[in-house]
Amino acid sequence: xxxxxxxxxxxxxxxxxxxxxxxxxxxxxxxxxxxxxxxxxxxxxxxxxxxxxxxxxxxxxxxxxxxxxxxxxxxxxxxxxxxxxxxxxxxxxxxxxxxxxxxxxxxxxxxxxxxxxxxxxxxxxxxxxxxxxxxxxxxxxxxxxxxxxxxxxxxxxxxxxxxxxxxxxxxxxxxxxxxxxxxxxxxxxxxxxxxxxxxxxxxxxxxxxxxxxxxxxxxxxxxxxxxxxxxxxxxxxxxxxxxxxxxxxxxxxxxxxxxxxxxxxxxxxxxxxxxxxxxxxxxxxxxxxxxxxxxxxxxxx
Length: 301
Description:
Number of strands: 0
Largest sheet: none
Radius of gyration: 19 Å
Number of domains: 1
Strand content: under 5%
Distance between the termini: 30 Å
Low-confidence stretches: 293-301
Oligomer: single chain
Helix content: over 70%
Main location: membrane
Number of helices: 12
Mean pLDDT: 81
Structural class: mainly alpha
InterPro entries: EamA_dom, EmrE-like
Transmembrane segments: 49-67, 79-98, 104-122, 129-146, 152-173, 185-205, 211-234, 241-261, 267-285
Order of helices and strands: HHHHHHHHHHHH
Domain EamA: 11-145, 154-284
Family: Belongs to the drug/metabolite transporter (DMT) superfamily. 10 TMS drug/metabolite exporter (DME) (TC 2.A.7.3) family.
């Protein structure tokens, strides 16, 4: 019940796990937003399914452990849930218009928004190495978007809006993670998100097929697991350190495409993925040196 000790290595691994689960959510949302599993569902309904099933999973665990809420900051929770719902819904909509890798690449520019907001709002000190690592990862994301490759403008704009919403949510999570327990944050977020998403989906809801029900449940369970990993990561390291590791979602999305749809990455995809991983590796290496007692003190990065 006490705040966890700072552990950048664990935070990096937890963020990578969250990235893998979120890429899986986007893959299922792509199938639901097209005709792969039946008549395409509206993004608002897909987003509702994500929150409903995530709430069932997290709520069941909380009930089983007799968890009790302790002085939650409800206005901040509501702001975080609104930003998260907006980001998820826009991301699901973008995935239906443009290729999965492109939508993921554009929307997961949110770590850039998150790191910049961490400097402005949280007062985190970011030095040249972190900025360089973030810039390298951003370059990899831009390579994966294939500039000039004919990306559909509406889908790209939806993904960009998703990135802005999710970057704002990143800061709200950081505020909450230093004050409340992870399970409380997850439970309230999915409760508020479920209420917001259900109200929005009421006007577009249609009966899903059995396969679509299964995919909706999968999205909710994967997202609940991803949230658990991410909230715990944010409690163990600065937001500016955690954020760039989310670029790994791009790599996982490419791997899922290859495994599920037999879409092998081309040279541009491989170059972009390696560039993203290079930026994340540089950030992790520098952070480990700063935390090591054998390394002389250095200015913050």
